[in-house]
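quick one, 331 residues, struct below
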Amino acid sequence: MSEQTNKSTQTLKTAPGWALLQLGFRPFFWLAAVAAVVLVAGWLYLWASGAVATPYGAPQWWHLHEMLFGFCIAVIAGFLLTAASNWSGTDTASGGMLALLAIVWLLGRLLPWFAVLPRWLPAVIDVAFLPLLAGTLARALWASPQKSNRVFLALLLTMAASNVAFHLGVNTDLPLLAQRAGTLMLCLVILTVAWLSGRVLPFFTARAVPDSTPQSPPWLGRTATGLLLMWAALWPFLPRHWLTAAIALAAAVVHVMRLYRWHHPALWRIPILAVLHVAYGWLALGLGLVALAAAGLSALGPAVHALTMGAIGGFTLGMMTRVSLGHSGRP
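---
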């Protein structure tokens, strides 16, 4: 693991100013934490009350959109705005620009609830966030010595396209389009989790557990990524197909192999590290459950929530904690 990965969680020198707007993770991790509580509480209320309508139509559409395009994107934005500066030595956003990004994200969460607004306005503002984030990151990611970091630009723009498709689906009564867009977004977030895990888990484990030798051979990483890409191309469109089941099962096996190579018994004594390994285990389990659902052997709900609550929830909690600690000045 390169020193560059280490730098993504280390303290930056920041210009004088309001501390909240000096580094990208500060406003966005805070917003993500608040969103996690509010969005889950809101979903539980809608579910328990039997509500039948939200700004996105049926309550499940609002739940899907806000957890993926709201909460997850806030965490991704906070991480990338901070890490890209360290990777390249180039500032991404601070002060007014960082405040603008946070406001656009927040408006995307709040404006849909104002019925007096034309339906297109909240959608346009919500959709605008990801291209704006990509544009803000472009210079730093392009200047990074590791050209592989540029993949985040393509990833963010693909997420933006998925968001456009979702809004079109819910606003033009095309539920299949909205469902496929939401599923694709889930796949893209899982790809992000898997790719970042492959970079940070071996490195963090080796640093925290001195006698460990976590191995991450390139062929295994490429196989894991390739299978996830194939799964992401299939699952939104063929959720109940033998080919989707086969690819998901193969991906689950490969990710278990990967996690096994990173494991060391001593890591369980370090909660901030263990949570990342547990989250990766949920990713592999979720893929296995996707395979069962695609083969018609189980319902889809357990697979979706293993990937979201288990893999994404665990990874975001672990990374938010790790990045925040790295910039606190504490060991």
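The first helix runs from residue 3 to 7.
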